[in-house]
Amino acid sequence: MCEALQFEFMRNALLAGILVSISCGIIGSLVVVNRIVFISGGLAHAAYGGIGLAFFTGTPPILGAALFSVAFSMIMAAVSFKNRHRADTIIGVIWAVGMALGIILIDITPGYNVDLMSYLFGSILAVPKSDIWYMIPLDIIIVSSVVILYKEFLAMSYDEEFTFIAGIPVRLLYFFLLGMTALCVVMVIRVVGLILVIALLTIPPYIAEKYTRSLGRMMALACLLGILFTVLGLWLSYSYNLTSGATIVMVAAVAFFISQSFEITKKRNKIKVRK
User: Which residues contact 93 (CB under 8 A, 6 or more apart)?
Assistant: First the structure.
């Protein structure tokens, strides 16, 4: 891995992976504990409309996707706030509309043939410095927002009724959470693609939840796991000439199944002891 870092594209890829892992660890933890994984998937696919719009208007793709995703996240928040379990149909429609709009806009963009695969499955090795300069402020916004509003997010995640009674604006906080999720999703798309976004957003927090007893520790461990999966995935993809985004997700998936096997073994041992 050290010899690979002599190349600028590998250094950019490693830095992008670390930045994405931090945002995924924090936002992913909130997504998992608030059970809005499906909504996050809808945002990931809707973001493709922003990418198409960006290419059509000549603006940076990550900026166009961010603005578009935030706008769609507000719609999803309005639809799902009162009844999250029955909002799947409308979210599915928004999911499809975002994808279709992005493809059509790319089709009619004059004189430019976009490699769709790089946005569907990620292209971390092709991340330019300009994208990293967008990722850094997004990371700062996400981290500082969660630090400032940590108690409010904690209350909303585990006891929404108490949060409302305590006078905390739950609706506004929920809208803000989905807005930050949209920004996080845009960052992840550049690394693993919109099809694999959910894996990197949810696997590290899900594993971290099993071994921590507080939301803050869960976020911290999820960030570390995300960085570990990214670095190991990059090393494997470089060593064996594999697609980097898919390799990173496969590393995370292996860790997920190992974690699940430990949990099953632990439960079986407890049952045996009781008998």
Answer: none
